[in-house]
Amino acid sequence: MTEKYTALYEAHKQLGASFTDFGGWQMPLKYSSELAEHKAVRSAAGLFDLSHMGEVEVSGPDAGAFLDYALVGRLSAVKPGRAKYSLITTTDGGIIDDLISYRLAKDSFLVVPNAGNADTVAAELAARAEGFDVTVTNVSTETSLVAVQGPGAEAILLELVPETQHEAVTGMKYYAADTVDVTAGERTLNLLVARTGYTGEDGFEIYVPNDDAAALWDALLAAGADSGLIPAGLACRDSLRLEAGMPLYGNELTLDTDPYAAGLGPVVALSKEGDFVGRTALEARKETGPARKLVGLKGSGRRSARSSYPVLKDGETIGEVTSGVPSPTLGFPIALAYVDAAYTKPGTLLDVDLRGKPEQFEVVPLPFYKREKR
């Protein structure tokens, strides 16, 4: 597989980033300390390069109806300027990807799949578009995505937005988006800014053409220099999203899992009119219920559970860990795991086989961490 690089790769090298492969992309894992980056996002702000994510434009008179058919949610009900989390599944209900769709106008959506699934989702949407008056365009290779996340994110972004548009930022609700003028160096860019993120904190994701990505990155770093903003890599992004109980495709979500097992049943709009891909299978899965469900686990010791570690009850394997870290914010180990449905009640005590030594974990409600409203 040919390695892929974002438009900000050289900027990351200059900042001393260490890199890792993620979905075929060379992405910054961390710049100095992943713990410091994690804590900065929780207390001030972190700046992320998310340009490996996909962007697929869906436009035309049937755009809303088409996405109702192609995805499990009711996208036609989303108002312009708002966004919705949804899933694209196979006909048998397996999860191809989880994604966010922004309704930019009555007949225009931007669908954002995960990095390794961008081409797959774009091709699948194009195949499902037959019979609908829509155009599906994969613009992933020409679009960068920069995110500023943390309690200081709004104030930092406002440094780059003209005062006449401050209300567009401060009044933007969670899972909403708008086009805003952003000053980047000597240029003013009109960019799509969304109040979304994957960290459990307030923050914004900004879509920018590749040619302008470096200028935007530098402008945000400068704007946040006195507010504690630091660049942040994938390592802390993973610990942040795990504290927030957010699933990661390839870990919690795969073709072998379905929305009900993953705790995403409310995302499936079985009440919407008409057929959609996976409806029959998902109706059946909801009726029977999953054999295993995704749960949160809180460790009682200091050792962390890791992906693929067996979950035990009375010495018998009843599940498997999908993600686990020592929580920097909470001070104890946390994990997500699929366990047999009989053992999913909060308060249930289970063991995780930590390389031959059982360690006690407790089933707890998700998310592990929820930010205070400010």
UniProtKB/TrEMBL annotation:
<dbReference type="InterPro" id="IPR006222">
    <property type="entry name" value="GCVT_N"/>
</dbReference>
<feature type="domain" description="GCVT N-terminal">
    <location>
        <begin position="8"/>
        <end position="272"/>
    </location>
</feature>
<dbReference type="GO" id="GO:0004047">
    <property type="term" value="F:aminomethyltransferase activity"/>
</dbReference>
<dbReference type="InterPro" id="IPR006223">
    <property type="entry name" value="GcvT"/>
</dbReference>
<dbReference type="InterPro" id="IPR027266">
    <property type="entry name" value="TrmE/GcvT-like"/>
</dbReference>
<dbReference type="GO" id="GO:0005960">
    <property type="term" value="C:glycine cleavage complex"/>
</dbReference>
<dbReference type="Pfam" id="PF01571">
    <property type="entry name" value="GCV_T"/>
</dbReference>
<feature type="binding site">
    <location>
        <position position="205"/>
    </location>
    <ligand>
        <name>substrate</name>
    </ligand>
</feature>
<dbReference type="GO" id="GO:0008483">
    <property type="term" value="F:transaminase activity"/>
</dbReference>
<dbReference type="InterPro" id="IPR013977">
    <property type="entry name" value="GcvT_C"/>
</dbReference>
<feature type="domain" description="Aminomethyltransferase C-terminal">
    <location>
        <begin position="292"/>
        <end position="370"/>
    </location>
</feature>
<dbReference type="InterPro" id="IPR022903">
    <property type="entry name" value="GcvT_bac"/>
</dbReference>
<comment type="similarity">
    <text>Belongs to the GcvT family.</text>
</comment>
<comment type="function">
    <text>The glycine cleavage system catalyzes the degradation of glycine.</text>
</comment>
<dbReference type="InterPro" id="IPR029043">
    <property type="entry name" value="GcvT/YgfZ_C"/>
</dbReference>
<keyword id="KW-0808">Transferase</keyword>
<dbReference type="InterPro" id="IPR028896">
    <property type="entry name" value="GcvT/YgfZ/DmdA"/>
</dbReference>
<protein>
    <recommendedName>
        <fullName>Aminomethyltransferase</fullName>
        <ecNumber>2.1.2.10</ecNumber>
    </recommendedName>
</protein>
<keyword id="KW-0032">Aminotransferase</keyword>
<comment type="subunit">
    <text>The glycine cleavage system is composed of four proteins: P, T, L and H.</text>
</comment>
<dbReference type="Pfam" id="PF08669">
    <property type="entry name" value="GCV_T_C"/>
</dbReference>
<dbReference type="GO" id="GO:0019464">
    <property type="term" value="P:glycine decarboxylation via glycine cleavage system"/>
</dbReference>
<dbReference type="GO" id="GO:0005829">
    <property type="term" value="C:cytosol"/>
</dbReference>
